[in-house]
# Entry
Amino acid sequence: MSPSHVFDAYTFSKQPGYDEPVVRREFAKAVPLRTVVVYCYDPRAVAVPAAVAKEFGEVYPGEIVTDAAGRKVASTTTLFEVVVAGGRAIDALRSVTVAQHLFGIENVVIVHHTQCGATSFTANGIVDAWAREQGTDISALYERESICIGDYVTSLTHDVRLMRASPGTPRQASVYGYVYDIDTHALTLVVQDHGTIRPADFAACAPGSHEVGTSR
Ligand SMILES: [Zn+2]
# Structure
């Protein structure tokens, strides 16, 4: 095994004079991120980010920006991908938190696709099979509603709520749930949640007013 310091030159927090707030500000400037899209690792869903980018007017995949020395230092993309089984929100929560911390985000778009493998099994089915084949009990390992997809409206409604309810999801971000048709590439909006604080609400929040977002 290599000694741990071999890769120190590639670690921001190990550089001399490392200043966390300064580094964070530099990161925020390096990528103009606006939208995180969560979708399935099924190869048939590979065009989901392009479809979402078109729907939301995002720059995707954009271009990598290099400095004078040819090092990759930034990107023009405004959309990041989180690719997980079934496109379920449970697997994307931490990635959304990190994306907000480093770059700031406005939208989280959760996409479940037609003919998904996650619709081919049940929560009981995978738990029982796992016990037989692996000899271990995963019945309490994952939230049951997040294991498979039995109904698209139910799964998307659950995932938008889960993402919204997470304290690691920025309050101002809108959360969307879409079904993507793998044959036509069509996106169908099923559920949306526009957050508790919108940028416009700050302007509407005049002194003396205790209600948000109620001005003309
Ligand atoms: Zn899938």
